[in-house]
Amino acid sequence: MLRSTTADDPMPYxxxxxILTLAVLLAxxxxxxxxxxxxxxxxKSVAKTTEISALGKTVLxxxxxxxxxxxxxxxxxxxxxxxxxxxxxxxxxxxxxxxKPIGPVALGTRMRPDGRIQVTYxxxxxxxxxxxxxxxxxxxxxIKDIGTWHVAxxxxxxxxxxxxxxxxxxxxxxxxxxSGY
Length: 181
Known about the structure:
Distance between the termini: 81 Å
Shape: flat
Structural class: alpha+beta
């Protein structure tokens, strides 16, 4: 349907249609181009914190409560726990490719020699220990290997609610009444 233009019409109908069509196409292309990037940014909660009274520390655990450990010798991208014997005792905490691990602290990832993506804390790969049977056990703490296994401790997190700050004292009245009122 053709439309007639008037003197106050800033842009005639035949010119506006291609511009609108081009804008819609550009918006669709931008959305389609962003879809793969958005698909690669999935997050997954993989850890929580637990206070271990026997150690007097707050440590990272799996979501199921298994204590997480790191090996002191696994620094600067180097993996020590790679042979079947080590991996039978120490289970790497892994995520699938394209998943960003999240938890109560900042977590990262590193690719293992076998191609799996392992979760890290403070740059150290995280593992659970098969010698921990119940939630909150720390039987792997201090085991010496090519390094020493330690629980992944975090700053103490108080589970008690913090007291509310006391209110500020009232400001002095800038317009004091004369005495006798």
